[in-house]
Design brief:
Elements lengths: L1 H29 L8 H39 L1
Length: 78
């Protein structure tokens, strides 16, 4: 039974060593890259947000118009 714990400990140590190696390689790969997104990506993100906000405002205005038309139509039929 004692051998079981030995193999379990060796297996855990191997897994941790592999994980540490993966982490070290990821750090080495990202060492040359800038930590902030590029100016182009930030500009595109801001532009997309602007379009999204504009479409949201347009939809809200359309919803208000449709609701007003629906209220008027219901008032006429009563």
């Amino acid at each position: 039974m004692n051998h079981y714990y030995t193999f379990l400990a060796l297996d855990l140590a191997r897994d941790r060593a592999l994980e540490a190696a993966r982490y070290r390689r990821a750090l080495e790969a990202s060492a040359g890259r800038p930590s902030r997104p590029s100016l182009l990506i930030r500009g595109l993100a801001h532009g997309l947000a602007l379009v999204s906000r504009g479409s949201t405002a347009a939809v809200r205005r359309l919803d208000e118009c449709v609701a007003d038309d629906l209220n008027q139509a219901l008032a006429v039929t009563k």
